[in-house]
Amino acid sequence: MKKLSAIFTAVFLTVAQSVFATPLQLDYYGVISSSADSNMLKMAQDFFFTQINAIDGVSVQDKRQNPGTVLTSVPDTSSTHAPKIAFYAEIREDKKDESAVFWNCIFFAGLADSLGGTTYQKSKNYDSYYKMLTNSKDTIHELLDTIKIKTSENGSLSASSKNSAFAQKSFNIEKLSGIWSGEPFTDKIVILRGGRGFIIFKNGATMNISVSAEENSEHGSLIKIRQIGKPNASFYPELPREIALSVAPNASPIEWNFTMNDENALSGTKTTLLQDDSKAEKVKAGNQSVTWYKK
């Protein structure tokens, strides 16, 4: 009997060691921010990578295209495939009043499409950059713990079943109404009831938008948002002003195609005019990866 117990214990320990030795695999894409403090941002994104790399049970690969450059929009994570997790952060600089500045740091962990495509997030406000750097490790740990739980439930990602359940509900477009954020050149995105809304840009321009939705059992709720009204060069703040003025009058309406897998997040692509990489003075229609978050 003792021999049988010893064999069982040995087998159990071998299996347990194998399970717990499997690391959580992350692809690190860096930091998104519109803050002007580029030196602090570069330090932050290097610091976050170092913190993740030091966590037991986590394997991380640096996927930054240029480690010395901070992102201005949501990174393209299409090269991250299961079982890897796409990881990045966003740092927002906000003011309580004219003299008091605080930093909102949000960490994102996105699952590959084959695993449900859900992006989980954890955020915290800090009243100094120093506190954000020294205390952010706890927030990273909390987010990764959430991912570990989701990936271990029922031997697969519970996010997939969660998304399917969400998609099966009768979608009411009114639930989109509210204030959203997520693009570096926008100050506020407002979706109103009745399938309409507007976007206020940081340059002062306002774009009216239409909002529609349709159900898709495989991908969740498909949301289409489209520019309505007259074109405006200020709707293209990413482009040099002279180029925007010349191309805006004949441009097709800007359009967003989102998948809604979570009630507080819209992820998808934005179809707009992009600067041609081969010819800086020219533009072309193209898609950008975009995620909006409900405030």
TrEMBL record:
Keywords: Signal
Domain of life: Bacteria
UniProt key word Signal: yes
Signal sequence segment: 1-21
Name recorded for this polypeptide: Uncharacterized protein
